[in-house]
Amino acid sequence: MAGSGVRVFSGTSNPSLAQGIATYVRVPLGAMHVFRYADGEIGVRIDESVRGLDVFAVQPTCPPANETLMELLIIIDALRRASAARVTAVIPYFGYARQDRKIKPREPITAKLVANLLTTAGADRILTLDLHTGQLWGFFDIPLDHLPARMILGDHFLSLGLENVVVVSPDIGGVKRAREFAEYMRAPLAIIDKRRDRPNQVAEIVHVIGKVYRRTAILVDDIIDTGGTLASAAEALMKRQALAVYACCTHAILSPPAMARIQRSPIRQLVVTDSIPVAPEKRTSRVTVLSVAGLIGEAIQRIHAEQSVSELFSAPRVMQPATEGD
Predict the structure, then answer these.
(1) Are 113 and 233 in contact (CB under 8 A)?
(2) Whole-angstrom Cα distance, residue 123 to residue 116?
(3) Residues β-bridged to residue 7
(4) Burial class of residue 169 in the structure, from the number of CB atoms within 10 Å of its CB (0-12 exposed, 13-18 middle, 19+ buried)
(5) Pairing state of beta strands 144-147 and 165-169?
(6) H/E element, 57
């Protein structure tokens, strides 16, 4: 796509992924300087002309979420004021997605607020990966393309040649996601019923719905934060005599003490994507990182050419190599 009117710019939250996307699209990363003023304010300077171009700004709003989100908003504003023809915010991980509804009185719906901020900043389109809930689509008044990572993750597990597999949703809220993954794997589905009174509290396992006895279980989730639910789910499956437990997720936040919990758990392998940068100290022998650069790059090519993005979900996929733990 070199010289085709496409530019890919990267914020500071995941430059390696942005470089992979640009390489797939066959354009150099756009010239941009992100800096901080003495008081901590974020500054952005676009160092090349983007007038009349189709621009894609890559910036997952991962931790520190407030910093990365504000940086993205300023990048969008800078590109818009530089007369880009269209600005697409590429947000592989959409932060604040878990605050998507009012559970108790006087609580905010922060996901909707963030959607409004992105639109106000000047984004014409959103490209994202595995949103926490489907209802987030309705929060945007601009087009949103949503990419599932299940085929990248599923192809990895299929390559392992695992037998007698059961796909397990670690909670009721993730059943749709796990069912789609199970259909791709052509495996049965089981569900863990848990209780949790507040965020980041280790959940209490109440029931395991479905047959896991003498089966190889694959726990499927979109986000792993502190890892407590995943570790307790793996232990519950082993108590019910599963043969082995694997786990996968799209967005590996892995806040402390996640890695310690995973290392102590019976999980044989945790497979994640690079939607969020995975630090070297977290790339242990149990962690496999798969790149989503090819998936996002293909979507960018289709968006620019005004082609269907949904056809990606059934078309053969170019897989990026996995990066095993150091």
Answers:
(1) no
(2) 10
(3) 55
(4) buried
(5) unpaired
(6) strand 54-58
Exposed, middle or buried, 80 (CB in 10 Å: 0-12/13-18/19+)? middle
Residue the block writes with tokens 């969008």: 76
Identify the helix (H) or strand (E) that includes residue 269: strand 267-273
pLDDT in the model for residue 202: 54
**Tens-place pLDDT, residues 144-177:** 999 999 999 999 999 999 999 999 999 888 999 9
Do residues 172 and 258 both lie within one domain?
A: yes
Residues 88 and 165 in one domain: no
One domain for residues 103 and 209: no
C-alpha 290: how far from chain center: 11
Domain count across the chain: 2
**Domain harbouring 186, CATH code:** 3.40.50.2020
What is the per-residue DSSP string for 167-179? EEESSGGGHHHHH
What is the helix, strand, coil percentage profile of the chain, to 5? 35, 25, 40
Predicted pLDDT of residue 312? 83
What amino acid is encoded at 12 in this protein?
T
Known catalytic residues are: 194
Report how far residue 213's alpha carbon sits from residue 137's, in angstroms, rounded to the nearest whole number.
37
Q: Quick check: 17 and 275 in contact, CB under 8 A? A: yes
Closest by alpha carbon to 147, among 9, 20, 319, 300?
300
Q: What is the pLDDT of residue 193?
A: 87
**Over the stretch 259-293, which tens digit does the pLDDT of each residue have?**
999 999 999 999 999 999 999 999 999 999 999 99
The 3-state DSSP class for residue 257 equals coil
Domain range for 94: 6-148+292-313
Secondary structure letter of residue 254 according to DSSP: -
Sites in the chain below the pLDDT cut of 70: 1-3, 195-206, 314-326
Tell me, what DSSP letter sits at residue 201?
P
Pairwise CA distance, residues 114 & 170, whole Å: 27
